[in-house]
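User: Just a sanity check before I run the rest of the batch. Below are the structure tokens for the first item. I only need the designed sequence back.
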């Protein structure tokens, strides 16, 4: 089967809007959290989010938005976008440049795109409310394609003239990890030569506020304490948005174009908890099975994994569930990989998280370090025994496992291997 490599990355995130800024933040463990003015109300228990800097997307009218001058976006392209569509479009342009892709490389039947987002709650509400109050004739013809769950893939496929496989993925916080796994399959099975994997979320009031009703968000008012996966005092996750893009290519394409890949996608696995609609299995059963399936897919033993970029969101149940799954997979095999959660720095990007953190993992493999898990004052006793890093280590991991989990107990594990072995 053809080998698959990551050759390009693009980021618009709370910790940086390009690979260099993201790398610097990961290395120095600098978070992207701020007090969020729309939550500065007595009825809003959550106060902190991971903010996207350099962009203004609060308005329901895209013509009011602002973004860095380096990006040129046509008005007719912008008018059908959600806020996260703008973030992802800019990240896509970064990834094209990073992978040194020409327009013929992008627009052909051998190049596809898989995307994941939760749609735009802000625009969904706005367009629906306008339709009810003023009637359909007063609604924007772009209202549907700008707001519903498929908006990200609709817009990117059209804007970049994608002719290969394209679809959107919806498995909540595992969505873009699923997209990455299936993009790997498209190439490994010979159906495509190149795939773009894109994740995006608005990360604004309407996207994050509903999680207050689930009692899953941190109530901390100090941004330095709000997101602390694996810490005994954690009290929920911090929401964030942004966009991330991965370029996956076959080995033949890497050799033909003469590019240096970040790493190889060695394999992946998935499994379900079969337990609860919103809560992880307390023993991490589905996560364990996903990791074991990934190792089997890549023909690797647990001891080969140097670093696990954990899903750990900083919730009470979820972090312990994953810790138990990690202990079952690695501890029972006598392996002790480094573990950290970069959500301590970015916050939880929901369906964006898998692609964003896979991008982080590829980046640190090239840059030669393992980011620490920030903000741990006292490790949760339930997580004892794992090699959870408290600070960044200056060593390049050879094999990285990236975990993701979503509602309904959907679990994905991706395996990355450094360099063309």
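Assistant: Here's the designed sequence for the first item:
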């Amino acid at each position: 089967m053809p080998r698959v490599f990551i050759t390009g990355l693009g980021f618009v995130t709370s910790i940086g809007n390009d690979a260099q800024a993201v790398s610097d933040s990961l290395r120095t463990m600098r978070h992207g959290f701020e007090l969020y003015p729309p939550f500065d109300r007595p009825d809003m228990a959550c106060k902190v989010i991971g903010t996207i800097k350099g962009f203004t997307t609060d308005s329901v009218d895209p013509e009011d938005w602002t973004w860095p001058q380096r990006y040129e976006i046509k008005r007719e392209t912008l008018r059908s976008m959600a806020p996260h569509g703008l973030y992802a479009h800019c990240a896509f342009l970064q990834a094209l440049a990073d992978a040194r892709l020409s327009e013929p490389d992008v627009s052909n039947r051998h190049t596809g795109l898989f995307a994941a987002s939760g749609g735009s709650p802000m625009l969904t509400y706005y367009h629906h409310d306008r339709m009810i109050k003023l009637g359909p004739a007063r609604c924007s013809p772009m209202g549907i394609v700008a707001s519903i769950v498929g908006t990200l893939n609709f817009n990117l496929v059209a804007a970049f003239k994608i002719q290969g496989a394209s679809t959107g993925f919806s498995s909540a916080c595992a969505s873009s990890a699923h997209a990455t796994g299936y993009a790997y399959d498209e190439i490994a099975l010979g159906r495509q030569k190149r795939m773009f994997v894109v994740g995006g979320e608005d990360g604004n009031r309407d996207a994050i506020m509903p999680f207050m009703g689930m009692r899953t968000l941190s109530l901390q008012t100090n941004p330095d304490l709000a997101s602390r996966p694996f810490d005994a005092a954690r009290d929920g996750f911090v929401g964030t948005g942004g966009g991330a893009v991965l370029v996956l290519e076959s080995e033949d394409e890497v050799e033909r174009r003469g590019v240096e890949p970040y790493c190889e996608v060695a394999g992946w696995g998935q499994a379900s908890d079969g337990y609860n609609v919103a809560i992880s299995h307390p023993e991490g059963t589905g996560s364990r099975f996903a990791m074991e399936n990934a190792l089997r897919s890549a023909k690797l033993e647990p001891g080969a994994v140097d670093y696990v970029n954990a899903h750990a969101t900083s919730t009470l149940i979820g972090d312990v569930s994953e810790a138990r799954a990690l202990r079952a997979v690695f501890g029972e095999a006598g392996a002790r990989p480094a573990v950290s959660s970069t959500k301590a720095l970015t916050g939880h990007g929901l369906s964006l998280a898998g692609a964003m953190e896979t991008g982080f993992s590829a980046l640190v493999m090239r840059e030669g370090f393992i980011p620490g898990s920030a903000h741990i004052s006292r490790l949760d006793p339930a997580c004892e025994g794992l090699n959870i890093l408290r600070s960044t280590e200056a060593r390049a991991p050879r094999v990285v496992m990236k975990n993701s989990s979503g509602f309904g107990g959907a679990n994905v594990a991706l395996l990355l291997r450094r360099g063309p072995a």
